[in-house]
Amino acid sequence: MRLITQTGLLRTAVLLSAVTVLFQMLSFNAVAQTRDESQLGLKTVVIDPGHGGKDAGCISRDRKTYEKNLTLAISKLLGDKISRAYPDVRVIYTRTTDKYLTLNERAEIANRNHADLFISIHINSFTSSSPNGFSAHILGQSSNRNRDLFSYNIDVCRRENSVILLEEDYTTQYQGFDPNDPESFIFLNLMQNAYYEQSLLFAADVEYELSKGPITHSRGISQDPFYVLWKTSMPAVLLEMGFMSNPSDLKTMNSAAGKEEMASRLLDAFRRFKNRYDSSLDIPAAAGTSAEEDGAADVRESSARGEIADGTQAGSSYGVQILVLSRRLKAGDNAFKGYRPQEYRSGTLYKYVVGGYGSETEAREMWRTVRKKFPDSFPVVIRDGYVSPL
After folding, report:
1. What are the CA-CA distances from residue 159 to residues 43, 57, 186, 371 (Å)?
2. From CA 327, how far away is CA 147, in angstroms rounded?
3. pLDDT tens-place string over residues 268-289
4. pLDDT single digits (tens) 288-303
């Protein structure tokens, strides 16, 4: 008789759980597709103030400031601003008081309400006082594996996931997910591509707006295995608004003016994302030209700037691919992080390439700079409009 270890059973359970979530996602999409036109668009947002109740989250060095209180205050300000700006949007909070919630409960609130966007608000911390700034996280295998920040990001993941350990019999409740076991993160990859594109776009909107202040330093956008993002069946982003361990960040977050400005910046990011989200569903109201004509205009504009090559011309050029998406982005979109890439169609996908250089050496030199903002980018060659890795 073949023996099956307890670890094997737990890992199998995790796989089954991921499949269950996938079927839930498909059913939610089916529900969305049956809504009438008045219900289309971004109509429901769930705001998740991190931690709460017996889970205090990060605590300041003087023991006077708790993460759970800051996240709740910022979340309420953001929700109020969204409600005032968009009366037709339902704003739902996972908590409105100092209440303890499991990670499963937070995700199920969003799933049960068929949310179009999930925003989880957190505050960061570190062992030293020097790190500062905000960061945005979307679901995925860490993009920092080959960088110094990888070990740091895993520590952040463990801390944000560790609320699981406050629950009784968490190994049963979470099908074997252990926040202290790196192997548990592997199973999160089963869902990392679901809603990836929209999550990335919202994260880019947040980074663009938050960089205006009051905490201006961005630590970037990263893919990380946060359990609460894995279990939500919609675009979802976890935000670390600043560092509790940094005196300057803490002072800003503790001030009424600081919290107010951060909430206003998040509203601006929400506005950007909603406009894009809604317009993508309104095909007749899009530009008066066809997709091919609009794309040609983008090529002409880019070529006139002399920053990128015309991807339709014959011959070869070299560049750096930064994104591949299932739908088009407009020129100047925040997801490009300031770059002005050329777009190349490949079946149902759109590849975005920075460059248009005459040699492979120039492209690889450019890649050293580009990968600071796009860790998953890579050098490519463009031949007759087709993009291939070098």
Report:
1. 32, 8, 17, 27
2. 30
3. 999 999 988 887 665 333 333 3
4. 333 333 333 333 233 3
